[in-house]
Each structure stands twice: as structure tokens, then as C-alpha cells.
Amino acid sequence: MSTDATITGGANAPKVEGASAIPPAELDRLTDEIVTALKSVYDPEIPADIYELGLIYRVDIGDDRAVAIDMTLTAPGCPVAGEMPGWVENAVSAVPGVQSCTVTMVFDPPWDQSRMSDEARVALDMW
Fold first, then answer.
1. Is there a contact between 51 and 13 (Cβ–Cβ < 8 Å)?
2. Alpha carbon 21 to chain centroid distance?
3. Strands 5-8 and 15-17: what pairing?
4. With CB atoms counted within 10 Å of each terminal CB, which end of the chain scores lower, N or C?
5. CA geometry: angle at 124 spanning 118 and 126, to 5°?
6. pTM given for the model
7. What is the CATH number of the domain that holds 48?
8. Where exactly are the transmembrane stretches of this chain (predicted)?
9. What is the mean pLDDT of residues 95-123?
């Protein structure tokens, strides 16, 4: 039975959990490049990326290099709710070594400003 590696903690405390059949150096590279890809996606109404906003709840890297992401929105009625998962899938799928990417929208727990990183707080002048 294979075990997946999971990046958890959102922007404030990303960690990789679990054992993986992917060699550690390759898993570190994939993790870093997936985070970089996530940081390239912005909500058009907010000048901070979705990773630093804390909208990414879970990133699971399977032993087959399939990536599953749980994410949320700042508000369920966000005007780009239908488009943003596709933007995330496209960004992560472009990472070398990623075989596929699926994004699931979740709203539990609800997003709040405590999930934002210091970088996002500075960008949004929310101190």
C-alpha cells in the first residue's frame, strides 16, 4: 500500500507529512515547485496570491505524482469561484514531474483573515 506526502498548514506553516515512495530530494523539489506554482495564482480582486492568503488547505502528492488540492475562497460567492480551481490545476499541472492535478473546493473550515501570512498582511495593509 502506498502512502502519500501531504503539504499542510497553508501559508503559515507548510509541512510535508507522511511517507512517500518518491525519493526525498525529488519530493522536496516537487513541494517547492508546487508552492511556487500556487503562489503564481491570484484572486483578481485581492493583490496577494492564494497561497499567502491561506486559501490552500491541503496539497496531497501521491506516489504516482498525482496532486490533489483542497482549497477555499475568501467568500463562497466569489466572482471567480468557477474559474479559480482551473487556474490552480493549470499552474500545478505545469510543474515538471506532476502527472495530474485535481482541485476540490471546500468551505469547512470557513476562511478567515487569521489564515493569511505576514506577507499577505503587508500586501493588504492589514496590521
1. no
2. 21
3. antiparallel
4. N
5. 65
6. 0.84
7. 3.30.300.130
8. none
9. 94
Q: How many domains does the chain have?
A: 1
What 103-106 contacts at long range (C-beta under 8 Å, 24+ apart), as own/partner pairs, is 103/69, 103/70, 103/71, 104/68, 104/69, 104/70, 104/71, 105/71, 105/72, 105/73, 105/81, 106/57, 106/70, 106/71, 106/72
| The three three-digit cell numbers of residue 30, written as one number | 516537487
The overall longest dimension of the chain from CA atoms, in Å, is: 47
Provide the residue count of the chain. 127
The count of other CB atoms within 10 Å of the CB of residue 90 is 14
Q: Dump pLDDT digits (tens) for 23-52.
A: 999 999 999 999 999 999 998 888 899 999
Rounded-to-integer distance, Cα 97 and Cα 71, Å: 22
Give the cell for residue 124. Answer: 493588504
